[in-house]
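Q: How would the structure tokens look for this protein?
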Amino acid sequence: MLEPYLYRMSLASWRPHSPTQCYPYHSMSQLDRITRINTMLSERRLVSRQTLLETLEVSPATLKRDIAFLRDNMNTPIIWDRDRGGYRLDASQSSGTPISVPSMWFSDKEIHAILTMQHLLANLDPGGLISPHVEPLMVRLNTMLGAADDPSEEIRRRVMIIGVGKRSLKLAHFENIGVALLRRRRLRIRYFARSSGEESEREISPQRLVHYRENWHLLAWCHLRDELRNFAVDSLREVQLLDWAAKDVSDEAISAVLGPGYGIFAGNRLQVARLCFSPERARWVANEHWHPEQKGWHERDGHYLLEVPYADHRELLMDILKHGRHCQVLGPESLRAVVAEEIAVMQRRCGTV
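A: Here is the predicted structure in token form.
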């Protein structure tokens, strides 16, 4: 069993040590010892047991526990070389590259927080795109925590993340997009446009990957249309990573597309929607974030007035309609007309008109 105080150690109490530093008897914590062992094994081809015992000033049993901790918990492939009479790192081991002792240490609460964040990240997408790559780290953190029960399993059981409207993705497409974004490479894609029901092949230069309302969107320069376009990642039928460099678009141009309007849709003409919510619905809407530039205030009678900029009414229309009779559109007149037309069509479909 690992010493509990090792995990409660504050960052301020740990200091790196030089190879020549001497340690008073019983002054070295387990973290100090495993740091020292790791340094000695990394600097030398072979370290004898006696050298380690004298340097660390510990008993053989304590040395055995420290080496087991490095091997089992820190993924350091330490082996005992019987022929040469000492410990060394097994360079031929293929299960993983030896890692050094980290310059910071996590408390049990911090590890629980990391495990919770991993659970949240893994649920950002329906395919678990992040989880397979992070899971080995989570297993190691679980071991470091030293708990009898698996905390990550407990988190999965206790924390529920319910996504509405998620659409499935292909992991290979997502990974190719990530490589193209970070290495500034172009992509050749086959894209299905839901608005028209047609497919097209085009070459794009990825600029931003955006997770919005449970789904991923790729803002990229389309070399076919010669302009910035927004692509739903789940509508990518094929994604091929190309060798030539991507076209770079200025942050100002990207912000002009992503920043000013409401939602994920872009547009050239910016307008301000003026919405009035009932006193009942105001208790929720007043605390909601609709847009970075929104303005809202309470009226004396309890109604809540909200102003949000928008360039394309499609997404805003959906959010207005979901509040039903509790939301009144005060302006502009073009938005009032769109909402009224949509309600009229709904009434005809329901046979009420």
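The two ends are 74 Å apart (CA to CA).

Residues 257 and 266 are 5 Å apart (CA to CA).

Upvote if useful.
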